Amino acid sequence: MILIVDDKKENILSLESLLALHSFPVDTALSGEQALKKILKNNYALIILDVQMPGMDGFEVAETISGYSKVKDVPIIFLSAANTDKKFIAKGYSSGAIDYITKPIDPDILLLKVNTLYKLYEQKRKVNEMQVKLQSEVEFRKKAQYETNEKANELKSILESIPQIAFTTAKNGELEYHNSQWLNYTNGDSKHLLTHPDDPSLNEELKKMAARKQPLEMEIRLRKKTDEKYRYYLLRVLPVKENGSVIKWVGSFTEIEEQKQAIKRKDEFISMASHELKTPLTSIQGYIQLLERMVNDESLRPYIDRTIVQIKKLDTLVNDLLDISKIESGKLKLNMKNFNFGKMLEDTTAMMQETFPDHRIEHSGNANVIVYGDEGRLEQVIINFLSNAIKYAPSSTLIRIETKIEENDLLVKVIDSGVGIPKEELSHVFEKFYRTEDSSKRFQGLGIGLYICADILSRHDCRYGVESDPGKGSTFYFNIPL
């Protein structure tokens, strides 16, 4: 906005009309005192100031304005009809004027100067605003950098105080910092730990983690520089995020050698116990079968049948324990070959139907395809899925199998109408010895069947999972590559 200051209304009116005609916003004042009051309240891009006014003349107003920090940079154009002498013009410039125009005013000259000074003021105002924003941004960045450094120092202090090996990496996975514990596991080269030669490269794993932008958790063997024995450690690396983006990673190594040895001893015990149980169990099965053929008393038949059922359950349990022992020791072998999956599924379904005559197992869809895998182990998976479907659906007699060819996969689903599984427990059902809270109270079992199935399916490159609605049933499925 432009402020016109003149004690004569007719002068103000002519200037106001001229400027308004060219779209300049205008404000007016009839005296120097009134002008100063308006200048303190409003912002002006330009002041057109008459020199000769009663009371405060134009020179006094300009000198007073120059003392106000708010408006000292606002350009002033002096207008004068009488004082055209050089000394008056010089006084005008020394009072703070940018330009000096004598009356009568040439409209074109005035407009040219107003337009130029108005643009210069706007440009200067924008530059000042930009400087303020830049200064604010600089202050903000300084503060953020200071806070980041403080957090980094705090993190380093924490990492130095813990007994574990700890470190941080840049967002690309490159090592940035490590605590003093790290140095106990190096041979001079502080960037490389003494890892077991058969274990994956730590640096490569960190780079893969950064590329995936996913936390890393893995077991790795390390040794101290003063020791020749490698021990197991659990490596966990988590992201540090700022505004939703990963800015660095924080990792730690926690020794788990004792836990690994305890698990090893437990697995050895399970393996030994399973083998020891297998021999007398086989003998018991033989004697019961012999007894079944020799006994003619029909009143004893139900007891023999119940004994056979319990022996089959015990045999299944022992076989599962043996499988777990083989999985843990890496000795579970697969006999891989091409076979007709549909034929295997048909035979398995028929066998399960004979075993559970009170239930109806229905199959829909196409499964008549050749797959490459261990036929016996995949049959074991289907038997487990069907057995669970029957076991956990005591009030339902219908079990459905659905198969469908999807591009290069065969999708197999086993669907029941049983008790279902709570949503928060779905991610754990394939874990070793895991049983849902409800099923552990109502149904027998150790929670190892699905763990074995998961291992078999993983080794066949299958995708597998479970969908469930509590109270309505569950669907266990897997996709096997063709």
Reading the helices and strands in chain order gives EHEHEHEHEHEEHEEEHHEHEEHEEHHEE
Main β-sheet description: 5 strands, parallel
The dominant shape is elongated
Number of strands: 17
List the uncertain runs: none
| Percentage of residues in strands | 15-25%
Question: Strand order across the biggest sheet?
Answer: 2-1-3-4-5
- Count of individual helical segments: 12
Rg of Cα set: 44 Å
For the record, give the distance between the C-alpha atoms at the N and C termini, rounded to a whole number: 78 Å
User: Percent range for helical residues?
Assistant: 40-55%
Structural class: alpha/beta
Averaged pLDDT: 84
Topology:
Layout: E1 2-5, H1 9-21, E2 26-29, H2 32-41, E3 46-50, H3 58-65, E4 76-80, H4 86-94, E5 99-102, H5 107-161, E6 165-170, E7 175-178, H6 202-212, E8 216-222, E9 231-242, E10 245-255, H7 257-294, H8 301-329, E11 337-340, H9 341-355, E12 360-365, E13 370-373, H10 375-391, E14 398-406, E15 409-415, H11 437-442, H12 449-459, E16 463-469, E17 473-481
